[in-house]
Every structure is written in structure tokens, then in C-alpha cells.
Amino acid sequence: MPFSGIAWLDQKRSFFNIVKINAPVKEADKNIGTIANNIVGMYNDSTFFVSADKNIFTWNPTTNHFKNITQGEGKWAFPIGTTITDKEGLIWMASKGAGLFCYNPVSKTTKNYRNEPKDSSSIGSNNLYLLIKDYNDNLWIGTDKNGLNSFNKKTGKFTRYPFITNDGTIKASNILDDRTVNSLLFGKDGIIWIGTNLGSLNRFDSKNGKFISYLDKKEGFGCIISLYEDSHNRLWAGTYLSGVFLVNKNSGFIKHFTERDGLPSNDIEGITEDKIGNIWFSTSHGLSKLNTYNDQITNYTSINGLPVIQTTGIYKDSKGLFYVPFKNGVIPFDPDNIVGNKVPPEVVIESLKYQQAGNNKDSILFTERLQQISLKHNENKVSFQYVALHFSNALLNQYACKLDGYDKEWIPAGALRMATYTNLSPGHYTFHVKASNSDGVWNEQGDQFSFTILPPWWFTWWAYGIYLIIFSIIGWRIHLFQQKRTIRIERDRTRDRELAQAKEIEKAYT
Question: Confidence band (pLDDT; 50, 70, 90) for 11?
Fold first, then answer.
């Protein structure tokens, strides 16, 4: 038997496996180019709605079974945004251009609801983004440029709600704060949460018809594209450019997480929760897991096994399994099986670089055998090179730095392995660096290095001694001068008195 070497399995990469969507679209239905198979909703448990060209399929990724629910209906010349099922088993589809569709899988009939300009009880727009349903099985519809609509299936009537056209700066009062709805959530308390494009998060109480907008331009709390209510009834709002916000339902956001806190991207496409309470985000640069007890973020990107970069949301089934859709496929995985590496990295400060006084050459000192160094006053621009010795997805190691005597708090450095400080004043400094491995386990002790920036010679102790001697001599000379001047003045005064007395005597004698 020939020797075959050693095989090594990267368990992290085996967590994420692609299941391709190959919807059986007929050749006659295909457009020129590649057919995009997009997941547009979850049907029952672990079964999805798939939009492929002008057909809508149900698809079970486990069995790879497809069923064309639009078969016999002809070509549906519209793209689908969101698909949901109601309590009666009817399938509702929000189209981008042709209004709302209802498909009855039993009778295999379709009903289309479109905007009628002369009928205010019709749907407000034919361009729909998404659908949700409430406890009464009524539909809530987010439109493009026509705000929020609701649909009462019993009466067959639509209700349109007032909105403003925002530019990202207007704080609306008791009205939806923008005309384009990006996200919708029906809360456990019956409140409708609406995320708008140029507005922000809106709270809508359907009982009293009151809107509250939480727009905060300064903090970037706008353009809400994803919403989620977790098991602790906390509300999470994902934005297009500003990361994710944890929201106080009565007053606005209370926490804000961005790339600076460890997210791979600030666009949050989807949000969900695993069995132990971690919050997961899908972004254009991979997945993130947030530990809500310590706010620690762990990322999963193409570097550590995610086979695609850009994800479009997260679905979760009744067993807690996750399904991350992307163009032409889905990635199913069990978050419980993803066990992080608990070994923190060793942290080493490799070198110190500074510019030598009197020339433009950089000098590099390797700090391995140095305890501390002293630099001249004009060698006060220093750079530290450091590294975390942990080689499992080393590109995802994270760093934080602090310079005692300069920084008040730890400064997150991300994956950057160098820190530079300029124009340091004379004094004693200690540079600290700590690091985490790719799973967010930190070595809090890290490494440190001390150095001193010496003052210029005219600020040294012996210079001050010379200054003291010089000033003492000058002071003594001034004292002698003043003393001589005083004696001279007194002598002149004595002489003047004697002359005056002599004149008086001479006058009296005469």
C-alpha cells in the first residue's frame, strides 16, 4: 500500500456547504444569459419559495425537490420581492411592478390586486417590496414610493397610510417618515415596526393610528433595511450604511455596533437569533455573531470557510437551523455546531521604528531583548510593529492598542499590525497591545514596551543648573550694583547736607 501522507480537515470550513438552486425552468422560458434563482420566502419548515425567471417554485433543499406553483398560469412577467403563506394556505406574493398576487395551491388559481387610480381602497402602488401578516392574518405591505399599505382579506379593501417625502433630515411627527418602505416587523405586542429608506425606524400603533419616527441623522440611525425582535423582546434594526442598532422601543436606540466594533460591513441585510441568545447578522461581507452578554463579535467570511461573501438575509426553521440565501443557492448550517477556538493568541511587539535625529533615515529596533530605550527629543515619531501568534485564520486576528501617557482608553486597531505616534512630548511612555484570535478570544495581558523621550539639552537638569548659576551671578552683580548705587546716593546726600550746613554757618557768621 503506497504512502499517501496526512490529510487535515479544517472543521470550520466544513460548517458551511453550498446547496445550489437549479430550478427546472424550461428552455423556452429562459431569458438570454444566466437564470437567477432567488429565494423570496420560507414555506412551511425548511422549504423555500424560489423565483426563477417568470416562475415561482417551492423548493426543499434537503431533498432538492421543486414544485412549480405557477405552472399552468402562463408567463408571469414580474419579479417577486417577498412571498408568504397565510393561515388558509394561500400564497401571497409582492411583485415589483404588477401589484399583489394571491395564489391558491388547491384550486391553482391566481388573483391579482393592482393599483386603481380612481379607487382609494385599492393598493397604493404596483411596486411592492415586502409583506408581513399580523395576528388577524391581515397583510401589511411595504411599497416603493407609496408608503405603508394594509389589506383586510375579509373586506378585500386596502388602507393607505400617510407619509412624507424625506431627504434624510426631516423628523416626521405622527406620520410615516418616508415614502419607501425597506423593512417591516409585526411585534409580539401588536406594534408594527417600519424601516424606511430616507427616514428611519417608525413605530406604528394600528389601534390609534399613531406614528413615531426615531430618525437620528447625527448617529446614522436611518435607512433601515432589516428588523428583528429577539427572545428577550429586544428590537434590533439593521441599516444600509451605519451598522446595527439595539433599540429602546419607547425612546430610540440604546446601543450601536459598526465596523469599528468588529462587524465586517456596515450594511445589515438580515438579523436572527440562535438557541443560546446570540444575535446573527448577514452582511455584504459575510456573517457576524454578537454575544449580547459581552458585546463580543465573531465574524464568518470567506477567510474562515463561508463559501460566498455577499449574503442577502437569514432564515431560521423550527429546529433552530439557519439558512443563508445568496444568488443561485443557500447555505444551511447549525449554529450550535460552530465551536470557536478558545485558545487566545500570544502577542509579541516585534519592533520599534523611529527617524534618527539629523537625517531622514529610519532606525528599526527589534524589541525582543530590549526592556526599554531612550530617544532624543526630535526622535519623537515612533511606530510599533506587533503580531498575534495564532495561525487559525490569522487574517481575522484583531488588535487593540494603548499608550500610557498619551491614550486614555484602548484604541481598536482591527487587523492593523502597526501603531504610529507623532509629536510625543518629552516623558516616559509604555506601549500596550492586546489581540484576539479569529473567534474573538482575547489575550488581555498582551505585550508591552517602555520608552522615554528625552528633553532637549536646554531642558535637562544640568542645563537648569547652569541657568541657576548664571542667574545667580547676574543676580549677585545686580545686587552689588544696587548696593554701590545706594552707597553713592547716600554719600551724595551726606555731602549735600554738609554743604548746606556750611552755608548756614557762613551766613550766620556773616
Answer: low
